[in-house]
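Working notes for the structural subgroup meeting. M.R. asked for a predicted model of this chain before we commit to crystallization trials. I am recording the input and output together here so anyone reviewing the notebook later can reproduce the run.

Input as submitted:
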Amino acid sequence: MPPYAINVAVPLVDVDPQTGPTGIWLGSQQWPDESRADPASMTVEPFQRGDCVLLDYRTVHAGVPNRSTIPRPIVYMVYARTWFFDEINHPMRPSLGMTLEEYNNLPEDVQLLVLRVFSQHARARFFAEPHDV
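Returned structure, recorded in token form:
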């Protein structure tokens, strides 16, 4: 299967082993499952402020704990195919708090900009509520 989502991470501060970079299992996008993700085989590289780290969503990765007292702000952006929604990492995290009425009152060009995030919010809200089938 070709990539269905790419995660772009840009650290806003230098991230070293003490502040906790992202651990990556190289080649894991080709594994049949995540069972081979042995912590000893994880690759951890420091990142400098402004670096751009691209991760195929199929690649097994994990955040290494921040053992310092320094905050670790990182900007994450995800480019995803229209059919993909991340139901594992962010199932109940509201990405946009907006009613359908508020969405419909936005100018059309703004609606196009927030359509995906609004759809994800609506899906999460729908699946969180009990429904008769």
